[in-house]
Amino acid sequence: xxxxxxxxxxxxxxxxxxxxxxxxxxxxxxxxxxxxxxxxxxxxxxxxxxxxxxxxxxxxxxxxxxxxxxxxxxxxxxxxxxxxxxxxxxxxxxxxxxxxxxxxxxxxxxxx
Length: 112
What we know:
The protein is an alpha+beta fold. It contains 1 helix and 9 strands. The N and C termini lie far apart (48 Å).
């Protein structure tokens, strides 16, 4: 009887932990002041997020490897100052995109 209760408890604990992992989400904001930009966004785990305008925010995206970019007549991928196109985000973050007409640089600001 004691063994059965232990197994039921263990099963509940494992299912609760797996449920919590699946529902974990972060908030990502992306913005720019560049006049040439008509839309912006990011992608993570094969899904694209974004919209027309100079800013976009999503409060329910998974932590993971992100790429940021925008549209200025054509799609433009952004890089960090060190040249990385992909960045790993694990907590709420704001990405500021700067475009000089030929290349885009992103600056990441993690929330506290």
